[in-house]
Amino acid sequence: MEAFKKLIDRHTGYILLFPAILASLFVHVYPTVDAVRISFFDFQLLHTNRPFVGWGNFVTVLQDPAFIQVFGNTIIWTILSLIVGGATGLIVAIFLNRPYPGRGFLRALFLVPWVTPPVVVAIIFRSLLSQTFSPINGLLMNLHWIDSPINFLGNLDLLGGIFSVPLLTIVAINVWCTFSFMMVMFLAGLQTIPPELYEAARVDGASKHQQFWRITWPSILPVVETVALLQGIWQFNNFNISYLVTHGGPLHATELLSVEVYNEAFNNFRFGTAAALSVIMMLIILIPAVFYVRRSVKHVA
């Protein structure tokens, strides 16, 4: 009995980790491995015969004309969400890092977009951006900035030959949803900077611009890099805004890769091509993910 207690004490950590490892295997590892397996078969829900097709599903996905557009949408979505959301989060974090009355209330207020459920966000913005009943269009027309209502979610005219109005619109909605997280991370980084550095810089005659680039930016750069990597991975896989606001339309103008996977699997019932598309997404995401893991291990070591 004593030997059994010693054995338990020696392996308590592994015993406590076992349920989490088991859950991770069933929730993450098994579905991933099964998706890779399905991607090599002509797996359709309405067909009982599911032959092995090798790389056929991948060829089908890559040769689909809509894939190029959807992939481009996803890249534009990810880059713009990172740049605009990151810049907004940093500006707000710097503003909230200064001492003034009501700062605590404003910090809580700026967290509202982060905690608002995506379904609620979609309903609100679909109403705000409606071509017929949009209060935004009404305001712009009352100010005589536009002559007719703008179809924010249906106008397929390209701006600069690259960006469509609906795509930029859902990017703006996504920035509103995600900048709060980056703001919190940046604010935490700003609060680790010793005030003495700024005092010494002011004594030496450094301007606000010089203080930012010589003190603030180098000090929070590790936080910026971590947030950029995590947000890049999350935004590339983002599903909620594109699907809930526009369902990927019109004509794939706002469709992202994650929405395309959903449509292939649960609208077209082609699980083979959906799995192939998800595997392609996973391989793309592995690049920043491996970089992030290596960076994290390096910092721990």
What does this structure look like?
There is one protein chain. With 301 residues, this protein is mainly α. The protein has a domain of 201 residues: MetI-like (MetI-like fold, Orthogonal Bundle), CATH 1.10.3720.10. It is built from 14 helices and 2 strands, in the order ααααααααββαααααα. A two-stranded antiparallel sheet has the order 1-2. β1 and β2 form a beta hairpin. α9 packs across α11 and α9 packs antiparallel against α12. The chain is flat, with a radius of gyration of 24 Å. The relative contact order is 0.13. The model has no long low-confidence stretch (mean pLDDT 89).
List keywords for this structure.
single chain, 301 residues, mainly alpha, MetI-like fold, two-stranded antiparallel sheet, 14 helices, flat
